[in-house]
Amino acid sequence: MSEIQSTSSSTEINQSKFHSIVTKHKTGWKRRLLIIWALMGPGFIAAMADNDAGGVISYAVTGAQFGIGLFIPLVICLAPLTFTIQEMSMRLCAVTQEGFSRLALRRYGKFWGYYHISTLAFENLLTLITEFIGMTAGLILLGIPLLPSTIICLVLIVAFVVFTGYWTKERIALFVGLLNVVFLVVAGMTHPSMAAIGHAFSAWNVPYLLKGSVIWYVIATIGNAIAPWMIFFQGSGTIDKGVTAKELRFSRIDTAIGCIIQVIVAAGIILCGAALFATYKILATHAHLTSSVHLITV
């Protein structure tokens, strides 16, 4: 009972913060900035979380192996699909004020309700493993040994989950999401050819020798764009933020901004990987020649 009351009071605090910012009697650009600051949240975070450790590695490796011919147009074309799914989840939960898993349990019965919860828990475990790999690898690059890096990551995650409320979590996550601009800076430093990018949209070509393996990278890219967990997070975050049916317009803007920025950053990461495309081909050719020479000498 006390847990329910604490959850309810936390939700009321978040609602009061959200609505107090939205309903402040200011005019002009100050009011617009306040509304943008208030509405940014679940939609933006859910979209930008696609560029997590696993997503960044996937995009970079895809660019290094296939160049920009297919995958930059693909990730941009996936933006409407991502928006549609996230907007549907947001709308369902804002109107009903119930989370996606509870709606599935109530509407379709225990089997599908527990099926969603169990598969989500399993997928989140795998996702958490990839996040730990990414964070630990980053700290190792900074010179911190493996074990201390893992402990630091664990302490940060536990502290983030246990000692902060939803509003604080949301603001921190927004700040981390905005750090994705670094990938755009690095992509610009590679001096990409605008002509080559334009040709990628008209040709959608894949190197002939790589067509056999491209399907797995396409599946990974699509799966990264419509990860199942974001449906649950978008709905629950909408309720925790205090969004109701009256604020659907604000939440749609939040979701649209997140989806647009996410694909732009993803394209930038692919460009970063594509800068290594020629190097990758040289290394692959060198490895092939080396293995051939080794077979001949043996």
UniProtKB/TrEMBL annotation:
<feature type="transmembrane region" description="Helical">
    <location>
        <begin position="56"/>
        <end position="81"/>
    </location>
</feature>
<keyword id="KW-0813">Transport</keyword>
<feature type="transmembrane region" description="Helical">
    <location>
        <begin position="139"/>
        <end position="163"/>
    </location>
</feature>
<feature type="transmembrane region" description="Helical">
    <location>
        <begin position="33"/>
        <end position="50"/>
    </location>
</feature>
<feature type="transmembrane region" description="Helical">
    <location>
        <begin position="112"/>
        <end position="133"/>
    </location>
</feature>
<keyword id="KW-1133">Transmembrane helix</keyword>
<feature type="transmembrane region" description="Helical">
    <location>
        <begin position="214"/>
        <end position="235"/>
    </location>
</feature>
<dbReference type="Pfam" id="PF01566">
    <property type="entry name" value="Nramp"/>
</dbReference>
<dbReference type="InterPro" id="IPR001046">
    <property type="entry name" value="NRAMP_fam"/>
</dbReference>
<protein>
    <submittedName>
        <fullName>Divalent metal cation transporter</fullName>
    </submittedName>
</protein>
<keyword id="KW-0812">Transmembrane</keyword>
<feature type="transmembrane region" description="Helical">
    <location>
        <begin position="256"/>
        <end position="280"/>
    </location>
</feature>
<feature type="transmembrane region" description="Helical">
    <location>
        <begin position="172"/>
        <end position="194"/>
    </location>
</feature>
<keyword id="KW-0472">Membrane</keyword>
